[in-house]
Write a structure and sequence with these properties.
single chain; about 425 residues; alpha/beta; TIM Barrel; GI Alpha 1, domain 2-like; eight-stranded parallel β-barrel; about 45% helix
Length: about 425
């Protein structure tokens, strides 16, 4: 891993260069393989505390498991392992909010240790949530900072081991939307400069109190709310003018940039504006699996035109059945009538369907779909034009193979390319000659 790459981004920003990096917040193999096949330089991949933790998380992977998984994909795609940077997102007691502070924080500290021990080097500390025996309401900023500092101390204890010294880079702050996206398009409040400054200063004091002032020197970014959000069927676009006070403030903060969460579905122009305004770390996750879902739905619709019902994969029906049998990943996020919920299960920007692709019966249906479509190669161009017009244009231009795998990859690539163009700097661009 190029452990100084984030430092390079920060230094470039402080020189007035609009440089950034995309944080890919997805464990989906199609997303990660596509990124690895395109990327020339450092690839930043992140996992969240509820997705990956010492107990397995909803992915069933510990931090060490996730590292091994990403390493295997890098080997399969030929991506140099030393160019992979791993980040832990929202590391803190979120998973254990129903427990008292002592137990929840003990588990959070052990999780941070597991992340560092496994080889993660970008650590986002987030202790903003109320725990079971906390007073009513959100925790005080001082409590949040003290808990973050406890986790930083645990990380630093491991980081002092041979080969790890000085490798960790920290992110603090948590002004992000609730998990699952917003419920209304009414807008979100941009973080005030006063609140951003207070958060930084309170965290600095807490780090010093627990004896990890040296870790504070490796703080590279602060999470704030720049005014971006998405919900089931809307996207709140970035408005640069509203974030100018924040942009001016961070210019005066030595060694710091912003990290922007929920940038999914922003336009290419908005992504470039975010980087220009010093939101140098752009987090994207659901937008990538949404693109994968779009491609699979298009392929299933093509299959329906090419095969009689008895020979079809039944992918969409299998996916819907899995979501109905296991509603825990979507039920508290998708509201409305049964018909409205059914629509959201398939088409929502929140993309809660991403939790179901790993189910064995869904994987089997995807494999049947791919086998069916492989039997019909080359597909009729008219069918591709109808259901995958962007892939059709690339196929006609000779830039894309006429295959189901290529159609999926092209759809995910389109999202990744928008982020790469926003990053700036020639060494962070995507490889346009990636295999079809």
């Amino acid at each position: 891993m190029n452990k100084n790459f984030l430092d390079d981004i920060v230094r470039a920003q402080k020189r007035g260069e609009p440089r950034g990096i995309t944080a890919i917040c997805s464990a989906h193999p199609w997303v990660l393989r596509t990124a690895m096949l395109q990327r020339r330089e450092t690839l930043l991949i992140e996992s969240t505390c509820n997705q990956v933790n010492q107990f397995g998380g909803y992915s069933g992977m510990t931090p060490a498991d996730f590292v091994a998984y990403v390493r295997r994909l890098a080997g399969e795609t030929g991506f140099p392992w030393e160019r992979v940077m791993l980040g832990g997102d929202h590391l803190g007691p979120h998973v254990w909010q129903a427990e008292g502070a002592e137990r929840a924080m003990a588990k959070a500290v052990e999780m941070v240790r597991a992340y560092v021990r496994a080889g993660y080097t970008k650590i986002h500390l987030d202790a903003s949530m109320r725990l079971a025996d906390d007073p009513p309401g959100p925790p005080a900023p001082e409590v949040i900072a003290d808990r973050a500092a406890q986790m930083a101390r645990a990380a630093e204890e491991l980081a002092r081991e041979p080969g790890r010294a000085g490798a960790l880079r920290y992110v603090i702050g948590t002004e992000v939307p609730v998990p699952g996206g917003a419920q209304a398009a009414a807008g979100v409040e941009v973080t005030s400069v006063e609140r951003g400054h207070e958060s930084i200063e309170i965290h600095r004091q807490a780090f010093c109190r627990v004896g990890v002032a040296e870790a504070w020197e490796r703080l590279i970014a602060v999470v704030v709310q720049p005014g971006v959000e998405f919900g089931d069927d809307f996207v709140l676009a970035y408005q640069s003018a509203k974030a100018q006070p924040l942009a001016a403030f961070i210019e005066r903060a030595p060694g710091l940039v912003y990290e922007a969460h929920s940038t999914d579905y922003q336009t290419p122009a908005a992504l470039r504006a975010l980087v220009r305004d010093h939101f140098a770390i752009l987090k994207v996750g659901p937008g990538l699996t949404f693109a994968y879902r779009e491609a699979l739905v298009a392929l299933a619709m093509m299959e329906a035109e090419l095969f009689p019902p008895r020979e079809r994969s039944g992918l969409l029906e299998t996916l819907e059945a899995a979501m109905l049998r296991h509603p825990e990943h979507w039920q508290k996020y998708y509201h409305g009538t049964p018909e409205e919920q059914a629509f959201k299960r398939r088409y929502s920007f929140s993309d809660r369907v991403r939790y179901y692709w790993a189910f064995p019966e869904v994987q089997a249906a995807v494999e049947r779909l791919m086998r069916n479509l492989e039997r019909k190669k080359p597909w009729p161009l008219t069918l591709i034009s109808q259901f995958a017009p962007q892939a059709y244009e690339k196929i006609r231009a000779g830039a894309l193979e006429n295959s189901p795998q290529a159609v999926i990859r092209a759809r995910v690539e389109r999202v990744l390319e928008e982020y790469a163009l926003a990053e700036g700097g020639g060494d962070a661009m995507w490889n346009a000659a990636s295999p079809g």
